[in-house]
């Protein structure tokens, strides 16, 4: 489903990702593990077309990935970043709707119901501004919003970073139910391996 | 008492038109971080299109729709075209480009139709008795229409697909893009809505002020003050402060002679800005 061949990514002169090749098949979950600064997040951003200059080949569902992030997302590629990702001055519900609305004929209510079923804590706060949520709740919201896009493949950056152990289980459960998942995590942060 | 009511009504008319222009400014700044000095020119072009259409025998109301649609689509997209190549360049360049755009449009208007003020008759001639004063009903209609348009803008930002997306892009453009939101199209909507809001104000006010090439200048200055006081990007704040400013100026002129009113109003605005400086900056908020 996702094929990367000899991916290089650069920030200015700094050559951050040096020749990554990997494949993710449909239904498969793959973890990308490594120390700080080895380029896990940069790899994800390179796939999404969010910032770094890249060289190499990235193909998704048989098509070469090019162009801005929104075109890549519309091919069915979801991205859940690590930090500063919620729309802080919008409510929880509006955050999820913003993604659900990308599908013109999509049933927004069904997306909201699915999100709240995965993360009941969000339903209780659905009219609250996302910026006022706790770190764990914001993480849940970014994940719920990423899933509302109904991606065929979802890239999750640091799924367990900064979460209470109980919330790590909630996130892990949510990703188990997602169609496929590909995550990046530091070995010391807790731990979850998708099946 | 009666002249206080009339002053309040006058203030509401001025405030309503500033509110429309300011709401457009707030929207464009919130979404794109652009301080658009050409906003007053959209106001002016809207007014000219209305005047031209009425002269051709088109009814005032149809002319108003034509003015808003043409300025929104053509004006908004032309400005977007001019600014698009500058999107990753320093703010000062964008600012200069909007000033340049504004000067070109003003000179074109002066060259094409002349610098004198063109009048348009109000489509509603009725007067309403306010105490002993016969107050023109059209002025009240302007306030009502502005309130409806602004309420519509509020609902658009709150519930409609592109409204919610506009706010999302304003807050975190990279994340919005990663979620599949069509960012360039959302920018275009911001430009079109912003220009159309100025055109609504411009064409509604022609019967009160007439139209000349620099008719939008004063109102843009006032609108900038309002937008800064309301918190750049704050749609509702800009609208409410505009109404407040209009009424305060109009009421104040009863009690404070000459330019003293403006000094007092600016003092109020400065206090508001100082208060705001302690808060975090806002993007497009309701």
How do the strands of the widest beta sheet of chain A line up side by side?
Answer: 2-1-4-5
Assembly classification: heterodimer
Main beta sheet strand tally, sense and closure of chain B: 2 strands, antiparallel
What is the total tally of β strands of chain B? 2
Strand content of chain A: 25-35%
Low-pLDDT segments of chain B: none
Q: Structural class per helix/strand content of chain B? A: mainly alpha
Number of domains of chain A: 1
CATH-assigned homologous superfamily of chain A:
P-loop containing nucleotide triphosphate hydrolases
Instruction: Name the pair of protein chains with the most residues at their interface, and give those residue counts.
Output: A-B, 26 and 21 residues
Poorly predicted regions of chain A? 180-195
Alpha-carbon distance between the two ends of chain A: 16 Å
Q: In words, what does this structure look like?
A:
The complex is a heterodimer of chains A (195) and B (286). Chain A has helices spanning 40-48, 69-74, 92-100, 108-118, 120-124, 135-148, 165-177; strands at 2-11, 14-24, 29-33, 53-60, 63-64, 77-80, 153-157, 181-185. In chain A, strand 7 (153-157), helix 7 (165-177) and strand 8 (181-185) form a beta-alpha-beta unit. Chain A has a single domain, classed as Rossmann fold, CATH 3.40.50. In chain A, helix 4 (108-118) runs antiparallel to helix 6 (135-148) and helix 6 (135-148) runs parallel beside helix 7. Chain A is 34% helix and 26% strand. Chain A has a 4-stranded antiparallel beta sheet with strand order 2-1-4-5, covered by helices on one side. A 4-stranded parallel beta sheet of chain A has the order 3-8-7-6, with helices on both faces. Chain A is an alpha/beta fold and 195 residues long. Chain A has 7 helices and 8 strands; from the N terminus they run βββαββαβααααβαβ. Chain B has one domain (2-277): ABC transporter involved in vitamin B12 uptake, BtuC, CATH 1.10.3470. Chain B has helices at residues 2-32, 39-55, 60-83, 91-113, 137-159, 161-171, 173-178, 183-209, 215-230, 235-255, 260-277, and strands spanning 127-130, 133-136. A two-stranded antiparallel ribbon of chain B has the order 1-2. In chain B, a hairpin with a 2-residue loop joins strand 1 and strand 2 (133-136). The longest helix of chain B is centred in the first third of the chain and has 31 residues, at 2-32. The radius of gyration of chain B is 19 Å and the shape is globular. Chain A binds chain B through residues 48, 50-51, 68-70, 73-74, 79, 81, 84-85, 87-90, 94-95, 97-99, 101-102, 145-146, 149, and chain B through 161, 164-165, 167-168, 171-172, 174-183, 282-285.
């Amino acid at each position: 489903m996702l094929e990367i061949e000899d991916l290089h990514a650069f920030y200015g002169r700094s050559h951050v990702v040096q020749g990554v090749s990997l494949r993710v098949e449909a239904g498969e979950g793959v973890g990308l593990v490594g120390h700080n600064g080895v380029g896990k997040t940069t790899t994800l951003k390179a796939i999404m077309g969010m910032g770094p200059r890249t060289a190499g080949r990235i193909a998704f569902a048989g098509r070469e990935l090019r162009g801005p992030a929104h075109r890549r997302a519309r091919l069915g590629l979801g991205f859940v970043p690590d930090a500063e990702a919620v729309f802080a001055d919008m409510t929880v519900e509006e955050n999820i709707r913003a993604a659900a609305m990308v599908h013109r004929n999509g049933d927004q209510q069904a997306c909201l119901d699915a999100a709240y079923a995965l993360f009941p804590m969000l339903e209780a706060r659905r009219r609250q501004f996302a910026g006022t949520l706790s770190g764990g709740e914001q993480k849940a919201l970014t994940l719920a919003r990423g899933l509302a896009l109904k991606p065929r493949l979802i890239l999750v950056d640091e799924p367990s970073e900064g979460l209470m152990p109980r919330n790590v289980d909630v996130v892990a459960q949510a990703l188990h139910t997602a169609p496929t998942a590909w995550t990046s995590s530091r070995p010391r942060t807790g731990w979850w391996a998708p099946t | 008492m009666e002249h206080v009511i009339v002053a309040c009504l006058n203030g509401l008319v001025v405030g309503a038109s500033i509110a429309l222009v300011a709401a457009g400014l707030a929207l464009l700044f919130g979404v794109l971080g652009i301080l658009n000095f050409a906003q007053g020119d959209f106001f002016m072009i809207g007014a000219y299109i209305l005047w031209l259409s009425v002269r051709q025998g088109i009814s005032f109301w149809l002319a108003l729709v034509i003015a808003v649609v043409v300025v929104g689509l053509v004006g908004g997209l032309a400005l977007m075209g001019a600014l698009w190549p500058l999107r990753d360049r320093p703010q000062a360049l964008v600012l200069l480009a909007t000033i340049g755009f504004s000067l070109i449009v003003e000179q074109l208007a002066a060259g094409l139709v002349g610098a004198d003020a063109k009048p348009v008759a109000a489509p509603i001639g009725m007067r309403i008795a306010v105490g002993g004063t016969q107050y023109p009903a059209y002025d009240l209609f302007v306030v009502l229409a502005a309130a409806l348009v602004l309420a519509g803008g509020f609902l658009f930002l709150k519930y409609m697909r592109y409204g919610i997306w506009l706010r999302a892009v304003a807050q975190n453009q990279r994340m919005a893009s990663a979620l599949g939101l069509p960012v360039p199209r959302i920018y275009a909507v911001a430009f079109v809505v912003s220009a159309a809001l100025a055109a609504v104000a411009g064409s509604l006010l022609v019967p009160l002020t007439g139209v000349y090439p620099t008719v939008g200048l004063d109102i843009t200055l006032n609108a900038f003050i309002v937008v800064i006081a309301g918190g750049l990007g704050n749609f509702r704040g800009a609208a409410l402060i505009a109404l407040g400013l209009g009424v305060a100026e109009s009421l104040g002129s009863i009690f404070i002679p000459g330019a003293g009113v403006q000094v007092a109003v600016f003092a109020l605005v400065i206090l508001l800005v100082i208060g705001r400086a302690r808060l975090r900056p806002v993007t497009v908020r309701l």
